[in-house]
Amino acid sequence: MSFAQLMRVEFKVGMRNYTYPIYFLAALAYGVVLGAFPEEYVSTMAPLFIFIDPGLLGFMFIGTSIFSDKKDGTIGALSVTPMEWRDYYLSKTIIMALLALIGALVIVVVGAGFNVQIAYVLIGTLLVSVVYTLLGIAIAAKYRDLDDYFVPLLAVMVLSFLPFAAYHGLISGPWGKVLYIIPSYPGLYFFHAGFEEIARETLMWSGIALVIWGIVAYNLAKIRFYKYAVEGLR
């Protein structure tokens, strides 16, 4: 099966099981809620909502997608074809990244209008989505259902929200600096750059940090998916 065919199948399955429509409805709901906040709070709340949609929702949805493919035998069937496994998880990553970009656009436009530096938001969304989707694939590969996935999902959620506290001064000192290694932290700078002035040097280093995280997450996904999802079926 070619990469393009995998993309088409992935999109059709996501539409058929309502994963993608639910994703869009969640983005719309976040946008409506954001729009209900007083204007002075929008720049604080928008980055949080934008992160939740492409980051954590993508992390959760990719897990359910992997579990579904395990249960219905898709991975087993693909294992006997001359397919490169990287095409499988990269097709899912690209689909989720595209959904994340659309979701972020919906949140920003519905909740804050067009007076936003949307390019920064979309760049951050793309990078964060890729990182969390690949991390989701790496972690979900070991499990068979959402019940088993819940504990690591909860752990990732808790860790990913800590940088928000550090960014707003609730966590300071050495611990605040240590939290920068969590991928949601550099993503925050891009999300905030849509609503307030952020130094370009800061954005540059944030982008580099997310690219490094993307490389690490890709290799984790590659190793763990083959070990648990492919070899685990044999």
Automatic annotation (TrEMBL):
Classification via Pfam families: FLQE3_permease (PF24686)
Native source organism of the sequence: Thermococcus onnurineus (strain NA1)
Superkingdom of the organism of origin: Archaea
InterPro entries recorded: FLQE3_permease
Protein's UniProt name: Hypothetical membrane protein, conserved
Residue ranges of the TM segments: 20-37, 49-68, 89-112, 118-137, 149-170, 203-221
Keywords: Membrane, Transmembrane, Transmembrane helix
